[in-house]
Amino acid sequence: MADQSLLSAAVLGIVEGLTEFIPVSSTGHLLLLGHFIGFESAGKTFEVVIQLGAVLAVLSVYSAKLWQVFSTARSDPKSFRFIVAVALAFFPAVVVGVLAHDFIKRVLFETPMLIAINLLWGGVVLLWVDRMRLTPRYEDATDVPLGVALKIGLFQCLAMIPGVSRSGSTIVGGLLLGVGKRGAAEFSFFLSMPTMGAAFAYDLWKSRHMLDSGAMTEIAVGFVLALISAVLVVKWLLGYVSRHGYALFGWWRIIVGGMALTALLLGF
């Protein structure tokens, strides 16, 4: 039984890393897959905490750029403004996350039908936005104005509903607000670091009394595999969306959401 749980944790960790930074909802995939394979984590903490592995993937890929931004923040207004922009975009998620944490974990995370429906309509929205003839005003993530950054942060709050997708909501928000396809994805990467780091710390603290050695082992396995697989996705994604856009991910959401919804309606 323990081996089966660790195997499930490994599979879910790989899925987390592969889906965290593409706009398909990693949490939605984890919760639906966990439902169908019978994986139950204490307080649904596993599904949140292993996301830190994906955050470390961004840190490893963007370490040089992060160092450049923070080391020049005092002398370069553009670097300082970018740090403030990410902080502003992060702020709405803090407020909503703290106020709605228990409702999200106890109700929304436990509703597979809602997750499948969100995957479906989110895929339609992604296809619609990808086909719009939008004229980008901000090609680079560091060019995003403070007001636009705050609005992207409000879009991110939609991802508190599992199945919506954190990266999907921020990327769609960025595209609609005039950020280019590559810049929107990159800004979403940087915003993921404080957002998911805070979610990791807060959820781990709230659920600390429910975690035994078995749960911590599952988290460790999922964490490591999420890190490895996320590194591959981060390196690949920016080049792909620059050339092809987001239609592939819209269709993926529709297919996965449709299959999950059908299975749930059939009683699985």
TrEMBL record:
Highest taxon of the lineage? Bacteria
Q: Does the keyword Transmembrane apply?
A: yes
Q: Where in the cell is it found?
A: Cell membrane
Give an example GO cellular component term for this record: plasma membrane
Alphabetic keyword roster: Antibiotic resistance, Cell membrane, Cell shape, Cell wall biogenesis/degradation, Hydrolase, Membrane, Peptidoglycan synthesis, Transmembrane, Transmembrane helix
Q: How the protein sits in the membrane?
A: Multi-pass membrane protein
**GO molecular function, one example?**
undecaprenyl-diphosphatase activity
Q: Which GO terms describe its biological process?
A: cell wall organization; peptidoglycan biosynthetic process; regulation of cell shape; response to antibiotic
Assigned EC number: 3.6.1.27
Q: What else is known?
A: Bacitracin is thought to be involved in the inhibition of peptidoglycan synthesis by sequestering undecaprenyl diphosphate, thereby reducing the pool of lipid carrier available.
Record NCBIfam families: PRK00281.1-2, PRK00281.1-4, undec_PP_bacA
Q: What does this protein do?
A: Catalyzes the dephosphorylation of undecaprenyl diphosphate (UPP). Confers resistance to bacitracin.
State the similarity comment. Belongs to the UppP family.
Which named protein is this? Undecaprenyl-diphosphatase
Q: Which organism is it from?
A: Gemmobacter lutimaris
